């Protein structure tokens, strides 16, 4: 399972709404020792979105236990191709999101996200997006 920035942001916020299914799924997966992956891009986006040394330290501590999936040249090429295929089909996807989707496709991972844009990507490519249990 690859976890998108949106879910991590909710999981880390103190004022997050209770009972968000994606956050609960993340918590269950972590407690069960399931493979949960992230990327350096997700870590960077989180560090940029939260301010203060306490938030920074909490993010770094929590992410220190997770393996990072490191994209290579082929992943970036595939992400660009995916983004272009999406655009031709009228689906808008950002550069980072295209890379996350591409990594999920390459490694046959399910993407855990609350970002509905990825459902649109799944209409263009065989992207597995977590839908609840």
Summarize the structure.
The chain has 7 helices and 3 strands.
What descriptive keywords fit this protein?
mainly alpha; 133 residues; single chain; three-stranded parallel sheet; globular
How are the secondary structure elements laid out?
Blueprint (H helix, E strand, L loop, with lengths): L1 E2 L1 H8 L8 H11 L8 H10 L3 H11 L9 H16 L6 H13 L2 E3 L4 H5 L6 E2 L4
Parallel strand pairs: 1-2, 2-3
Explain this structure.
With 133 residues, the chain is mainly alpha-helical. The chain is built from 7 helices and 3 strands; from the N terminus they run E-H-H-H-H-H-H-E-H-E. It has a 3-stranded parallel β-sheet with strand order 1-2-3, with helices on both faces. It starts with a strand and ends with a strand. The model has no long low-confidence stretch (mean pLDDT 91).
What are the low-pLDDT stretches, counting only 5+ consecutive residues below 50?
none
Strand content: 5-15%
Mean pLDDT: 91
How many helices does DSSP assign? 7
How far apart the termini lie comes to: 14 Å
- Biggest pleated-sheet summary: 3 strands, parallel
Order of helices and strands: EHHHHHHEHE
**How many beta-strand runs?**
3
| Rg value | 15 Å
The helical percent reads 55-70%
Name the quaternary structure: single chain
**SS-based class:** mainly alpha
Envelope shape: globular
Please give the order of strands in the largest beta sheet: 1-2-3
């Amino acid at each position: 399972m690859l976890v998108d920035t949106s879910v991590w942001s909710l999981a880390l916020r103190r004022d997050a709404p209770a009972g968000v299914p994606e956050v609960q799924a993340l918590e269950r997966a972590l407690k069960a020792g399931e493979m949960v992956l992230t990327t350096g891009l997700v870590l960077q986006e989180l560090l940029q979105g939260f301010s203060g040394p306490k938030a920074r330290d909490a993010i770094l501590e929590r992410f220190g236990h997770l393996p990072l999936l490191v994209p290579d040249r082929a992943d970036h090429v595939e992400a660009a191709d995916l983004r272009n295929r999406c655009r031709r089909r009228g689906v808008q996807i950002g550069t980072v999101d295209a890379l996350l989707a591409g990594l999920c496709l390459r490694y046959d991972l399910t993407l855990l996200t609350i970002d509905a844009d990825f459902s649109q990507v799944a209409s263009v490519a065989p992207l597995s997006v977590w839908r609840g249990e």
